[in-house]
Structure formats: C-alpha cells, structure tokens
Amino acid sequence: MKFIHTSDWHLGRQFHNVSLIADQSAVLAQLVAFIEENPVDAVIVAGDIYDRSVPPTVAIELLNQVIHQICGTLNTPMILIPGNHDGAERLGFGAEQMKNAGLHIISDFKQMLEPVILRSQSAGEVAFYGIPYSDPETVRAAFQTSVTTHDDAHQLLTRKVHEHTSPTQKQVLISHCFVDGAIESESERPLSIGGSDRVSHEHFIDFDYVALGHLHQPQQKGAPYIRYSGSLMKYSFSEQHQKKGFTRVELNQDGFVSAEHIELTAPHEMRILEGELNTILEQGKTDPKHLDYLLVRLMDKHAILNPMEKLRAVYPNVLHLEKPGMLIGVEQEMASARLSRSEIDMFRDFFVEVQDCDLSAEQDRAISDIINQLTRQ
C-alpha cells in the first residue's frame, strides 16, 4: 500500500501582510499532479489545514477545490485531522455524510476510535486512526481523568486507540503534536509555555507508521516510521534551507517499507540576503529569483535614506529589513562623532544621499547663510 503523508497546509496564511494563497494554490496543484501521475491509496493531512479556526473564504474555496480533485476526479480517499490552528468543530462539519465521497475527517474522540480501513493486495487491511489535536484540559474533561501535560494526554489517547486495534490489520496513526527532541521552526505556534507541550515518541512505537503534523521541518524521531512530513511550503525565513513537500509512504504485509520525501516548489521562495546595499542592488539586477520573498540584512555602517524603496526597485518582494551593520563597532564613539559634526556637514551628507550629487558652490553658500542666521537667532 502506498499513501501520501502531508501536513501543515496553513491555508489562508498572511506573511508580513502578504497573502500566500496563490503560492499555496500552486504547490497544491503540484501535489494533485503528482497523485495523477503516481496513484496512491490515500492522502493524509495531519492537521493545520487552515491557518486559523475561522478561515478566509479564499482558503475554504481552495480546500474545496483540492478535495474535489483528489477525492472526486482522482477517486483517492483523503483522511484529515484538525491541528492547533484549526477549529475542530468547523472542520468536522458534515464528516459523517462526506465519508461516502471518500473524505474522512476525524475531529472528535468518538471518530478517533473508528478507523478508516483501506485494503490493498500488498498490505491487506490497513486501519488509519487519527488523534485530533487536543490540549490536556480537553482530554481531562472528555475522559474524566487526571492529565496535566500533552505527554499525559497522548499516552492516554494512544492507549485508547490501541484498545480498538486488530492484530490482523496494519495500523497507521495520525497525530498533531510536538515530539520531544524534534527540530522546530519560527513559524509554528507554541502549544504551551514551559515545555509541557512535548510528547514522547515511545507512545507511537507499536504502530506501523505514525504520520505527524505540527513541526514544519521534514524529519523522523525515534524510528524511521515516526515522521513529520513538514509543512506544505516555507512559512518563515528560518525555513529558507528546508526542503518542503510531502512524504510518500509504503507498507506491505510486514509493516513499514519506506518513506520518501517528495519536494514541492513554491513560486516565491523565502530567502535571507545579507550584505551592503550597493552589492545587493547590483546582484538584484541579474538575480533570476528576484521575485522571492526576502529578508534583507544591511551591513552598511552608515545611515541610508529610504533603503526599502531602493531595494524594492530590484527586489519587489522585500518583506523585512534589518540593519545590523549600524550596530557594528563602538556605538557610543560613532554616535559622538556624528553629533560633533556641524549642521552644514550633516546637510551636505543628506543632500548627497537624496540627490546623488554634491552641493554646488552657490547652494553651499546659501545653506551656510541660512544655518548661520538660524544659529544667531
């Protein structure tokens, strides 16, 4: 049996006030095209389908379109669970009626114990169990038991699932959580404060495959079959070197066989450029990826007028600007040196920055006279 494990679509996300819906649509089109050329038995989305519990209309429309293409046109079942960004009740609306169309949304604890069972010649029956994202308070209230951490909650929930498994079936578990020791990124919303959101991988050892969501970097933790597929695309500049995409998983009668990362490419990558302004402007003239979303770190040690305007002339999608170069050296001495300069010297520098040329002799005399008159007054 082959199936696709993906997670953290975050449909509807804004990044530095820029909508990413067009990029998300492009990478999802690549996913659909891959399934069309390489048929699979199921597609899993391990939480954070939307970026917020009340998603914008464009995000709902995009999800509807993708589900229609995968479940309808390609006749491939999809299995979804809500993540911490999703509203479980909203996402799960109409779940019972959608099962017959091949869309399985596991959004509550009752559905968690009712697996989606798929069959293949190579693996026999495979039962897909989903644990909808739940904080310890929700689990404590639902099962009337004392759990205080996410680890306690997951230990309880995986035990409940195990009580309903069959030894004649292979078991796949879908969960949205933070496995202890895994690598995080800046774009993930913390599940709790102080480390109580960490979950031990030991709870997942007895499954044949564990499809994890929440962490945005593709990785395994504890065993090759306990994996994060990573997010659909890059959602922070800290992820600039990560390879985004999805995981194609294969099971047979003995259980886990392989997991292959398939890369997706967004129209706009997220990159960090670092250097002096003139150098960055020059490279931008020939940069084939000049439309990427950029964080620029300027290393110039002097003040620059309107740097963002100049950068966007060659890199239209500069979204954030940092100026660490201004902090290099002995700051107090630099500040003191600037303050010790005369008004006319500072105006000359300002004029050069604005007009890209020096004051003429006549202009210099005129501004000198004005400054002298103001000083006398």
UniProtKB/TrEMBL annotation:
<keyword id="KW-0233">DNA recombination</keyword>
<keyword id="KW-0269">Exonuclease</keyword>
<keyword id="KW-0235">DNA replication</keyword>
<dbReference type="GO" id="GO:0006310">
    <property type="term" value="P:DNA recombination"/>
</dbReference>
<dbReference type="InterPro" id="IPR041796">
    <property type="entry name" value="Mre11_N"/>
</dbReference>
<dbReference type="GO" id="GO:0006260">
    <property type="term" value="P:DNA replication"/>
</dbReference>
<protein>
    <recommendedName>
        <fullName>Nuclease SbcCD subunit D</fullName>
    </recommendedName>
</protein>
<dbReference type="InterPro" id="IPR026843">
    <property type="entry name" value="SbcD_C"/>
</dbReference>
<comment type="similarity">
    <text>Belongs to the SbcD family.</text>
</comment>
<dbReference type="GO" id="GO:0004519">
    <property type="term" value="F:endonuclease activity"/>
</dbReference>
<dbReference type="GO" id="GO:0008408">
    <property type="term" value="F:3'-5' exonuclease activity"/>
</dbReference>
<comment type="function">
    <text>SbcCD cleaves DNA hairpin structures. These structures can inhibit DNA replication and are intermediates in certain DNA recombination reactions. The complex acts as a 3'-&gt;5' double strand exonuclease that can open hairpins. It also has a 5' single-strand endonuclease activity.</text>
</comment>
<dbReference type="InterPro" id="IPR004593">
    <property type="entry name" value="SbcD"/>
</dbReference>
<feature type="domain" description="Calcineurin-like phosphoesterase">
    <location>
        <begin position="1"/>
        <end position="218"/>
    </location>
</feature>
<dbReference type="InterPro" id="IPR004843">
    <property type="entry name" value="Calcineurin-like_PHP"/>
</dbReference>
<comment type="subunit">
    <text>Heterodimer of SbcC and SbcD.</text>
</comment>
<dbReference type="InterPro" id="IPR029052">
    <property type="entry name" value="Metallo-depent_PP-like"/>
</dbReference>
<keyword id="KW-0540">Nuclease</keyword>
<dbReference type="Pfam" id="PF12320">
    <property type="entry name" value="SbcD_C"/>
</dbReference>
<keyword id="KW-0255">Endonuclease</keyword>
<dbReference type="Pfam" id="PF00149">
    <property type="entry name" value="Metallophos"/>
</dbReference>
<feature type="domain" description="Nuclease SbcCD subunit D C-terminal">
    <location>
        <begin position="267"/>
        <end position="353"/>
    </location>
</feature>
<keyword id="KW-0378">Hydrolase</keyword>
<dbReference type="InterPro" id="IPR050535">
    <property type="entry name" value="DNA_Repair-Maintenance_Comp"/>
</dbReference>
